[in-house]
């Protein structure tokens, strides 16, 4: 993850706030605002170890009940005053019941894509200072279900934001950061992460420090992150595979949702 100590940063969805606490030690004082989806009571009951009190002791503001999908939460920020907004390992919470799952017309894949699209869009509309770099960062994993969201391509269709590239996320740089399971007080095994960058600005210089993976080049299937294909037969075999058919279904569902957006 490439960050600048001078950036004014908002973190969202930071479960136990351990990422925000670690990040605060790398930024200038007063340059961080943290937020969580839960209310304070839920945070304290859910996580035996959390960083809420440590952040407050360091005079870092913490916003609770911040729902990324809710524009009203973003409007409550009261102005575009950040240079970057960061969302670490986003994943929609599990449904509370089978009844709730059955009542949801959108697939889980589409719901996760909607969450990330709203994050990027609302970051720009409500949080990012037009005079600054205007960066929306998402750190994710190259495993299911994260790799099935087609982040680099159709996520921001029609919004006009630039996908700039990605960088490796090295958790060792963030001492004390605990990656959590959604809705559970359980520390997830540290796996390799990737931080993706979007901006309303082209950022020619920053792009030079980021990279694009090979699957975004010719002779690959970017949607499936597959390739390179060694022959036409190899390519057609992939296009006829179960994996490609599944990704086509996900993409069709997503584009159908965007048509009503």
TrEMBL record:
One of its GO terms (biological process) is rRNA base methylation. It comes from Pseudoalteromonas rubra. GO terms for molecular function: rRNA (uridine-N3-)-methyltransferase activity. The lineage of its organism: Bacteria, Pseudomonadati, Pseudomonadota, Gammaproteobacteria, Alteromonadales. Residues 10-180 form the 25S rRNA (uridine-N(3))-methyltransferase BMT5-like domain. This is 25S rRNA (uridine-N(3))-methyltransferase BMT5-like domain-containing protein. Pfam families: BMT5-like. It comes from the Bacteria.
């Amino acid at each position: 993850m490439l960050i600048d100590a001078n950036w004014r940063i908002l973190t969202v969805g930071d479960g136990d706030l351990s990422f925000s606490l670690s990040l605060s030690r790398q930024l200038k004082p007063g340059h961080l605002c943290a937020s969580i989806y839960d209310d304070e009571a839920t945070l304290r009951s859910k996580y035996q170890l959390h960083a809420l009190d440590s952040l407050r002791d360091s005079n870092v503001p913490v916003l609770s009940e911040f729902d990324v999908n809710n524009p009203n939460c973003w409007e409550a920020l009261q102005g575009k005053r950040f240079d970057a907004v960061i969302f670490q390992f986003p994943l929609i919470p599990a449904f509370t019941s089978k009844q709730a799952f059955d009542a949801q017309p959108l697939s889980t894949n589409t719901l996760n894509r909607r969450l990330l699209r709203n994050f990027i869009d609302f970051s720009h509309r409500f949080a990012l200072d037009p005079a600054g770099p205007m960066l929306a960062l998402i750190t994710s994993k190259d495993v299911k279900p994260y790799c099935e969201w087609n982040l680099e391509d159709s996520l921001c269709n029609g919004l006009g934001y630039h996908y700039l590239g990605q960088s490796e996320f090295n958790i060792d740089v963030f001492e004390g950061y605990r990656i959590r399971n959604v809705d559970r007080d359980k520390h997830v095994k540290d796996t390799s992460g990737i931080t993706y960058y979007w901006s309303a600005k082209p950022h020619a210089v920053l792009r030079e420090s980021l990279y694009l993976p090979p699957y975004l080049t010719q002779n690959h299937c970017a949607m499936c992150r597959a390739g390179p294909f060694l022959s036409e037969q190899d390519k057609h075999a992939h296009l006829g595979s179960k994996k490609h058919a599944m990704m086509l279904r996900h993409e069709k569902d997503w584009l159908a949702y965007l048509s009503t957006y």
